[in-house]
Amino acid sequence: MKLNNLDLNLLVVFNAIYTEGSLTKAGEIVGITQPAVSSALSKLRDYFDDPLFIRVGQGVQPTAKTENIIIHVREALSILQKSLETPDAFDPAESSRTFKLSLNDISEGRVLPILIDKVHNQAPKVSLSSYYTRRDDLQHALAANEICFAVDPFPPSDSEIKKELIFEDEFVCGFRKDHKLAKEKNLSIEQYLDLDHIHISGRKRGGALVDNALAKLQLDRKIILRAQHYLITPEVLNSSDMVLTCTKSFANKHDLAYKTLPFEVAPSQFFLAWHQSNDTDPGCMWLRELIKDSFAEAKSRWH
Amino acid sequence: MKLNNLDLNLLVVFNAIYTEGSLTKAGEIVGITQPAVSSALSKLRDYFDDPLFIRVGQGVQPTAKTENIIIHVREALSILQKSLETPDAFDPAESSRTFKLSLNDISEGRVLPILIDKVHNQAPKVSLSSYYTRRDDLQHALAANEICFAVDPFPPSDSEIKKELIFEDEFVCGFRKDHKLAKEKNLSIEQYLDLDHIHISGRKRGGALVDNALAKLQLDRKIILRAQHYLITPEVLNSSDMVLTCTKSFANKHDLAYKTLPFEVAPSQFFLAWHQSNDTDPGCMWLRELIKDSFAEAKSRWH
DNA sequence: GCACTATTATAAATAATACTTATAGTATTT
DNA sequence: AAATACTATAAGTATTATTTATAATAGTGC
After folding, report:
1. Are A68 and B85 inside 8 Å of each other by CB?
2. B262, B280: one domain
3. Which one of B4, B12, B106, B247 has the lowest number of neighbouring Cβ atoms within 10 Å?
4. This prediction's pTM
5. A97 to chain B: which residues are within 8 Å by CB?
6. CATH number, domain with residue B144
7. What is the distance of C-alpha A87 from the center of its chain?
8. Would you call B3 and A9 a contact, using CB atoms and an 8 Å cutoff?
9. Are B175 and B262 contained in the same domain?
10. Domain of residue A235, residue span
11. CB < 7 Å to strand D — which of 69-98 in chain A?
12. Residue B83 pLDDT > 90, yes or no?
C-alpha cells in the first residue's frame, strides 16, 4: 500500500517543512503537532538517507538533496491537488480515453464514419470501440459501464437509463433501380404483399414494426429471406427482384429505388441511451454531442 | 498529514485496481489481502462519492469518474516513482532552484556578469543570490547550507569543507594612466614606499599580503585610505595620485596603469569552497563547473 | 559570557486505523 | 441449479501515528 515503501503522506509534511522553513510552523499548516512533524521527518531521513533539513537560526534550511527532491514532490502534489479539487474535466486534445458503444450494423454504417472523423479531429488520442450488445443486456452493460452509450430503437425503460431520440426516418419499400416496380407510379398494398421480402432482425423470430402494422390490418407479407445484418441487403437486392422495407435514408445511401409504403406505419426511430451515472461526466457529455451531431448529419446527407 | 483529507497511499491501491481490473489481483500486486483492498476502495468511494469501480464478470469496470481521475493519479505517481527511484538528477533546463553564494565585491565584479550569463543560457529558471558571508561564519554557513559556495582567499580549514584554487594573479601597483609614474620604467622600492596607498579590507584592522611581505623586509608603507570595497577604488585613483596594490587583472579591467612590485610577494589566490555534503550533488556540481569556467574566463579576459 | 528564547528531538502513553482471518453475499459460468 | 469466482462485511489483532511532557540544542540580547 506504499510506493517504494514510502508513506506518501509523509511527502505532504516534507513539502510543508520546505515551504515553512520550520517544523513547528509546518505542523500548524498540516494540522499536527511539532513532534509529529519531527517524527515524520525522521522517517523521511531514514528513507532518503540524508538530513534533508538542517537546523539553522530560527528554522531549518533545506539540503541539496531536498532541493532535488522537492521539485518532483511539488509537481506531483500539485497535480493531485488540482485533479482532486477540480470537478472532473475532459480535455479532448489530451485525453486517450476509450469510449465503448453499442451500435447495430445499420447505425455503424450510418454514423461511424462521420463520428470517427469528428472524434479524431477534436481528440486525436481518443479511441472508439463499437460492439453490439443485445437489447436484454443493455441495462446491465450500461450500469456496469461496460459501454457508455447504446443506440437502439427500444432502449431499456428504467429510471436509471437516460435516453434521447437521435434519428427518425420513414419506412419505404426499397428495391434495385432497374426493378420493374421503378416504372410504377404508386405501390398498392396488393403489390406490396405479393413481393418477395427480406427481413432483417437480430432476433431469431418475430417480425418488425411493419409486420405489426400489417397485422393490425390482418394482413401478412411473404418473407423469403431473414438475416441479421442490414449491410448485406444491397448486394442481395441488386441481384434479385426482392424488396426491403427500410428507411428512406438507407435506400438513398445504398443507391436503391424505393416507393412510399401503401399503409400507415410508425417511423423508424433510434434512441441514444446512457446510464445516469454518466449523465454529467464531461467526457460522455462531449461524446454525446458528437454522436447527436453525427446522426443529424447522416440524416441530412441521405435525405 | 493528508492531502485534502485523502490518504495518498490509497491512490496506490486505486491505481492497482485500475490496472488489474480486480481487487483480488490488485491486492497481490500491492502486497495486501483482498479485504484490505476492499476497505481501501470503500474509503476512496466515500471520498469521491462515486462507486469508482463496478463489479462485472470476473472483475471490476472503472466508472467514468475513475477514468477522469486515473489520468492524473498515474501522472503524479509516475513522477514520484521516477524521482524516488532515480538518484538525484539536475536538469538545468527545468530547474528553478536558487543557488546562494558568498562572494566579496571583487569576485562579484570579476565573475558575476560572466557567471550569470552562463547560468542564464543553460538554466533560464535558475537564480543566483550572492551575499558576502564573513570568513568566521563560512564554516557554519556552508554546513547549514545557507550558502552552497564561498569564494575566499582563505577558506576554512576543515575536513568537511572542500576547496579548489580557482583564481590566481600577481599583485601589481596600480594608478591612473596619466600618473607621473606611468613614464617611469621600473618602480623602485623607495618610490613604492613613498606613495600614498589605498588599502582595501573587510576587517577593521590588519594589513594585506603585501604588508606581510613588507614586514618581512622590516618595511612599512603609508596607507592613507582604508576602505572595504575594491570597486570604489578606480574612481578615487583617477582623481588622485594615490596607488592601489591589486591584481593585474583588476588593473586591466578598470583601465589602470600599473607597475610590477619591487619586492617578492605571494600571488593573490581565491579558492572556491563548499561543504562535502554538496560534493556530489548534481546541481552543485553543475554550478561548480560554471563558476570555475567563469573565473578562468575572467582571468584570460583581463590578462 | 550568561541567561533567555525559540526551536527541534526524544520518550512514554494513548488513540487511531490498517491489516488479517473468517465468513457472508453476489454475481457469473457450466 | 450447482459450482465457481469474486467482492463486501465483521471482528480481532497488530501496527503505527499522534499527543503530551520533557530534554536537548542553537541562537539572541543584555
Report:
1. no
2. no
3. B4
4. 0.70
5. 67
6. 3.40.190.10
7. 20
8. yes
9. yes
10. 171-266
11. none
12. no
